[in-house]
Each structure stands twice: as C-alpha cells, then as structure tokens.
Amino acid sequence: MIDFALTEEQKACQKLVRDFALKEIVPVAHELDEEQRHSPEIVEKYHEIGLLHYAVPEEYGGAGLGSLEGCIFGEELGAACAGVAASLGGSILGLTPFLIAGSPELKEELLTKHTSGPNLGAFCLTEPDAGSDVAALRTTAVLEGDEYIINGSKRFITNGGVASLYSVFATENAELRHKGISAFMVPADTPGVSSGKKEDKMGQRATDTREVIFSDVHIPARYRLGEGLDGFKIAMKTLDDSRAGVGAAAVGIARAALEAARDYAKERVQFGKPIAAQQGIQFMLADMAMKVNAARLLCWHAAWLHDNGQRNTLESAIAKCFAGDTAMAVTTDAVQVLGGYGYMKEYPVEKYMRDAKLHQIYEGTNQIQRLVIARQILS
Length: 379
Ligand SMILES: Cc1cc2nc3c(=O)[nH]c(=O)nc-3n(C[C@H](O)[C@H](O)[C@H](O)COP(=O)(O)OP(=O)(O)OC[C@H]3O[C@@H](n4cnc5c(N)ncnc54)[C@H](O)[C@@H]3O)c2cc1C
Hints:
Elements: H1 8-35, H2 40-48, H3 67-80, H4 82-101, H5 104-115, E1 121-124, E2 140-144, E3 147-158, E4 165-171, E5 181-187, E6 193-198, E7 209-220, H6 231-267, E8 269-270, E9 273-274, H7 279-307, H8 313-337, H9 339-342, H10 349-357, H11 366-378
Parallel strand pairs: 1-4
Antiparallel strand pairs: 2-3, 3-7, 4-5, 6-7, 8-9
Helix pairs in contact: 1-3, 3-4, 3-6, 3-7, 4-6, 6-7, 6-8, 6-10, 7-8, 8-10, 8-11
Bound molecules: flavin-adenine dinucleotide.
C-alpha cells in the first residue's frame, strides 16, 4: 500500500517551519546574502520552536523526528534562504555520526548539554587534499594513554567557527587508507581547535564556511565513535542518512524559483499580453514544475526508506543528485523567464541560481553521486 499523504503531525511541522521561514528568514535573506552574514538570531529562534536538534532522540533533548520530517523542514528552509538552510541542516549533519555510532554514555555526556541551547554542530570530513577522495585524508589521531591527540586541518566546513561540537574524521593509520579512519566528537572549545578565515562564496552566503584546524588537540579516548577504524563506514552512513534532506533543500530553492517565475510571467506584458500566455513560457514553467515534483518524491522516498530501517544508499544518491541538478536547471530557467530583470539583484531569482550551484558540489559532488549510483546498479 502506498500512501503519499503527510500525517497531521507532519502537516503541522510543515506549517510551523513555513510560518517560521516567512516571518524570520525571508525578510532578511537578501541582507544576509549581501553581507555574507551568519545569523545567530535565526539559530536561536529555531531552537526556541524546538527544531534545531529535531533529529536527536527526545531522551537526549531533541525532537526525535525522522528523515521525512527533515525533508519537509529542508524544503521550507531552502525556499526561504538556502544559506540559512545549510547552516541549520549542517548542524544536524555534524551530529549524525554521533547519533549513528555514539555510545549512550557519551551521548548523555556531550549531546544533552549540546541540545540544551542554540548550539550548532559541524561535520569535518573534507581536507585540502581529500575532497571526493575521502580515503586520502591526512588528519591524524594518535592514541596516548587514555587520550587521542588530533592534528590536521579540515577545509570548507559548514558552521566552521560557529559550531560548538565537531564530528571529526582522522586516520589512525594512513597506509590503510579508508580502513585506517576513525570518527571522533570534538567540542569546539577544546584547546588547539581553531578556525580559519571565512570563505567568500558565490552563493549560500548566509552560512559560514571555514577551515577548521586541530593542533595537538587532546580529547578523552571515549570521544571516539564506534569501534575504531570504522570512521569511513560511519561517514558513508552519515551521508546516506543526510542526502535526502540536502536534496529537499534543493527542491525548496527550485520551488521558490518556479513560484517567482510563474508570478512574474503572469504580470509581465510583452506583445500586448502577459508572457505567461506564450506557449514557449508555459512549456518552460511546465518542465520546471515536473522536475520539482519528481525531485520531491525522490527525496521523500529515500527518507521513507531510512525511516523504515532500510538501506538507501542508491535512493539517497539518486535523490541528492536529481534534486541538485533540478535546482540548477529550474533556477537557470527562472532567470530566463524574468529576462533582464532576472539577472538583477533586485529580484530573488539570481540568488536562487547562485545558491543552487552548491547543491551539485557539497555532500559529494554530483559526479560522485553518479559513481555511487552506477556502483549500486552494477553490483
Ligand atoms: C560551501 C561548501 C560547504 C561545504 N561544507 C562541508 C562540510 O560541512 N563538511 C565537509 O566535510 N565538507 C564540506 N564541503 C566540501 C565538499 O563536500 C567538497 O568540496 C566536495 O566533496 C568536493 O571535493 P573538492 O572540492 O575537493 O573537489 P574534488 O574532489 O577535487 O573534485 C573536483 C572535480 O573533479 C570531479 N571528480 C573528482 N573525482 C572524480 C571521479 N572519481 N570521477 C569523476 N569526477 C570526479 C568532482 O566531481 C569535481 O567536479 C563543503 C564545500 C563547499 C564548497
């Protein structure tokens, strides 16, 4: 039996986040983009409505919600401002390795404190020489007595410098490549943790992206997640879990662009009638709507599999890739529908187009998603 209806609770969640986004994010989205500014005020207010740590189980202070709810939130936030969506979503991404592989004792110790306030998480995987090739990472973790000492630097970290808790992937034996990697939780106030300059980005400028540096960072050995040397698996499982929500944020950008293009097309008169009366424009809008709907269903399906305990490596890669490509295509068409005005910062669609591009790059580029998909269907 297939049921595409959201439950009453999910509809209430959707309305809560849509109202929040319209009231707290949309009015400042342009300004945050112009000034390339992260907004702690929005984070605080999102925490006040109880959703900042939505995926954390209730026993550790979260809302205990699933991946499908994450898609609903991601779409609404993405439609309002993809930069803010990245910051709030990136926080959950940073906690996901912990949710997957943290012991109950460590969760009690670190997570309960983290969720008690408007604190952000961050996911530290990428390095200057290890982007798509995660197994090439060079950050080291050396066990000495009952402590690990971490050294290295992580590149392009969402919420870098503003997060309170980092999930960090480091190698205990570089020769073993992916089999030598372990995962750790590192509180940001640990001596030796620092952040680099804020990256000056094309889009999603309302989220801070920085290098995060670990210089002789001592952490208790119990801050290691899982069994040790299983960090690569934890990272891959994290990305399986998060890609539906990332895709949903891309759906949000595409939906906002479609709505802006539709409204403009009904208003803009050329050759004596609204451009929406031209079949050439209608076909563009129809194609945009088809892609948005298809991308949403792919994200919801991947999330549904996750929430029902089924592996979704294939489906989450398909969802993330299709939704990212959709966001790029639909926002580009939205700029086209608005003509010269679409190219101007006075209208929102050029921001949507800049924001959309990142969805083909982070959380694994869309080439890497295609590799994952091919590997799955060929195996
Ligand atoms: C704004 C922003 C925020 C980010 N946030 C985070 C974060 O919070 N945490 C984190 O850990 N990382 C983060 N990243 C890093 C992001 O995940 C990487 O940028 C991405 O995985 C690609 O790595 P790279 O930039 O080193 O590109 P490279 O791996 O150098 O790739 C360059 C190009 O080559 C292609 N390519 C590489 N290998 C192959 C292959 N085998 N086959 C075909 N094509 C290939 C890629 O698709 C890409 O087009 C962020 C990046 C950005 C830009």
